[in-house]
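To close the chapter, one final illustration. This time we ask the reader to focus less on the individual chains and more on the assembly as a whole: which components sit near each other, and how the overall shape emerges from the parts.
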Amino acid sequence: MPQMNMVQALNDALRVEMRRNRDVVVLGEDVGKLGGVFRVTQGLQDEFGESRCFDTPLAEGGILGVAIGMALYGLRPVPEIQFSDFIFPAYDQIVSELAKYRYRSGGEYTCPLVVRTPVGGGIRGGHYHSQSPESQFIHVAGLKVVCPSNPYDAKGLLLSSIRDDDPVLFFEPKRVYRAARADVPEGDYTIPLGEAKVVREGQHVTVVAWGAMLYEALAAAEQAATQGIECDVIDLRTLWPLDIDCIVASVERTGRIVVVHEAPKSCGFGSEIVALVNEKAFLHLEAPPVRVTGWDTPFPYTLENEYLPLAHRILPALVETARY
Amino acid sequence: MDFQTPETTLANVPTVLRADGSADPATDPGLDAQLLRELMRAMVRTRIVDERLVLLQRQGRIGFHIGSLGEEATILGSIAALRPQDWIFPCYREFSALLWRGLPLGTYLDNMFGNEDDPVRGRQMPDHWTARALRIGSVSSPIGTQITQAVGFAMAARHKAEDVVTMAFFGDGATSSNDFHTGLNFAGVYRAPTVFLCRNNGWAISVPTAKQTASTSFADKGVAYGVRGVQCDGNDVLAVWRTVRDAVSRAAAGEGPQLVECITYRLSGHSTSDDPKVYRADDEVTAWRRADPIARLRRHLELKGLWTEDEEKAWAASCEAELKAAIEGAEKKAPPALSSMFDDVFAERPWHLEEQCAALLAGPRAPRGH
Ligand SMILES: Cc1ncc(C[n+]2csc(CCOP(=O)(O)OP(=O)(O)O)c2C)c(N)n1
Ligand SMILES: [Mg+2]
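The assembled structure is written out below.
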């Protein structure tokens, strides 16, 4: 089986779907000849031509508005936003239009498109090349939100996302893009949206993470194990709709939960997960749910490793929660 | 718009400096010898700094640089043509503006290293500086956002009956942003004293200007908004100075906003993160080296007897020495204090930031600090 990093796996997914379905088109800044600043769309213009993989003017609102129009006509556009930090000029199209088309037209119109965008810190990108805005999209009714942690999932989830009949925000953790290679099957396979995965089993603490922070959660869980604390580590994969059953089933066994994310703490997705656990598993809880997150500040440059919820900050939370 | 060679691209664009180094007497702005030499020195210094910063990034000593190689005349000619009371709303390539207005080189280097003395306190990437005392705005990455702000700033100055012109710098790519169109529209409606300075360097990362717009020029875009638009040869510092000084005078005299398109060329990659060989023909770059703005001014000054090879060597050596000291100084400074991360979110820290700051300070340190 071929070994791929996440960039290659995503590229492969786009190729597979563009070969299968002529209605899939890729558009965005620098996606053509350059193949995207992270090279996820490399070679697509050569293989599929400029009409199916094209550079756009520098206007995210335009990219989304045009992609929505194409989706309304029946295409399956996969617009790229170069960094999720630059998605905000398109926020109006996403929030007011993309998310609401199906609902506001009584189901008459749908927008099956996937917005691909790199997310998160860890590449020394400072304020504007590091943010994690996922909760700002989850909070908007009508958008699915995905964030893979590894090459295999990335390909299978992207294929499912493109085939999904609802709009999907597909966040790609850029710290993981080239971090490691893994077995990725050739050709077509999918990973269903809405299914989390338990990637490490343990009976003492449930740890929920996604994207790049999954690896920090796993590293902390590894260290906790040396102190006799065994963690159930869940990789969400799809953030919304949330696989709440997977989380609740785990918390019913452990009685304890720690959620890890890069985004700031307040109103981050961790807040929603903790609230749901309180609603659905309150009587099983043995300790207060804990969030280990970025601070409530803009994302810093020099001090980024002190900002990110890396393993050194997750471990004490696991120990405290287990011993509560 | 085709950037294959400077000769074809600039064929119908107002120029002052001619191929032989002389200035067209009909358009020569007649700058005095001192200003001409200051411009030359600034351009040479800018290039030395740019080239060294790329090396520092390659050596892993700084994280990033986004430079102005080839665009020195556009940037410095514009800034030199502003009056001292005028404000600059920069893009990200205009570090030479900071230096022109007197920022110590060491302070710029502090920003490149994101250290404790960095004016932005290590919070933003390199080349994202701030210099209010020099009447220069704070750089942000999102493209175009400064354009509308420059308009509002100019409107506010007029509201206070103060004689201020604002200049917004932006690239050809930025002309596709919402803020470009909204900025021109608002400025047109309110007759704001703003100069919109488009550095048309041929490329927005890998996207050529021809794919950015179907207009024949960016200056044309002013027409739709009732904004006077003009082009000039952006590699000819005299043409830039003349065009911008005229625009500033008009804006200050109440003639309304001005759009100036300087046609120049990005000789380097987009930034140190970019590899332009993937999308750009070497021939094009080679051709544009013929129009190097520094070489063009050098020829002119030599012709006028205002500049010699020896003088340039001596000046370059002193720039190198200054730069070396500035780098060494900035590199050995400490990172910003941990607690500074929680400053400036608000004027005062609310309870939640006090709590988070205390938690950070009491907790373990990250293994891979800088
Ligand atoms: C809103 C937004 N979208 C995308 C980017 C990524 N980006 C950074 S610079 C750039 C190209 C800018 O080109 P141009 O305006 O011509 O300026 P130049 O870099 O050539 O000076 C892009 C797409 C960004 N910074 N902001
Ligand atoms: Mg440009």
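Chain A has twelve helices and 14 strands. The pocket of thiamine diphosphate (ligand 1) is lined by residues A 29, 58, 60, 82, 86, 89; B 93, 141-143, 170-174, 199, 201, 203-205, 266, 270 (CB under 6 Å). With these observations in hand, you are ready for the problems at the end of the chapter.
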